[in-house]
Amino acid sequence: MRHRRSRLRVLAIVGFAACLAAFISGCDETPTSSGDLLDIPSAMARNGVTITNSIAGGSACPSQALADNALHLTVATAADPQPRDVYLYDFRAASFASTDPQVDACVTEYELANGGQTADRIDVAPFRAIGMGWSDDLKRDIQAALLDSLTGGAGQ
């Protein structure tokens, strides 16, 4: 009888854990688009980009109110080993287009703070990436990582 109660407890715990996991995942077994800023570092690694530093809330333009949805990465690739800054921003899909003026102002501020150099920018809804001195390969890898983060690597 005692063994049977132990088994029932284990089954109850396993059943509870399974129900909790199903609840957390939304009870849907099909993969969904993540679109999460925190997925981008993994996506960058899958696309050959090495991250040497990251700062949550790090923005290319400190005077703009973008820090809450910003991630500053320092990255390099085999083809472009010079460390480069990548400032990532994550916006709600519904308001992505309406953030253009704010991001444009940020890019202008960033360019002025860097002696008028032209900034690099990639927009892949709901993400925006800003930096300077990116090689064509790095631009391609960043864009691929942004797209990859939306599918959780399913495109790999």
What's the SSE blueprint?
Blueprint: H1 2-24, H2 40-46, E1 49-56, E2 70-77, E3 84-90, H3 100-113, E4 120-124, E5 127-131, H4 136-151
Antiparallel strand pairs: 1-2, 2-3, 3-5, 4-5
Helix pairs in contact: 2-4
> Could you tell me the radius of gyration in angstroms?
21 Å
Beginning-to-end CA distance, first to last residue: 52 Å
Q: Determine the fraction of residues in helical runs and give it as a percent range.
A: 25-40%
The multimeric state of the shown protein is: single chain
CATH architecture of the largest domain: 2-Layer Sandwich
Structural class: alpha+beta
Q: How is the main sheet built? A: 5 strands, antiparallel
Q: Widest sheet: strand order?
A: 1-2-3-5-4
DSSP strand (E) fraction? 15-25%
Low-confidence parts: 6-33
- Mean pLDDT value: 79
Number of domains: 2
* Shape field: globular
Q: Tell me, what is the CATH class of the largest domain?
A: Alpha Beta
Query: How many distinct helices?
Result: 4
The H/E string reads HHEEEHEEH
CATH topology of the largest domain: Phosphorylase Kinase, domain 1
Extended strand count: 5
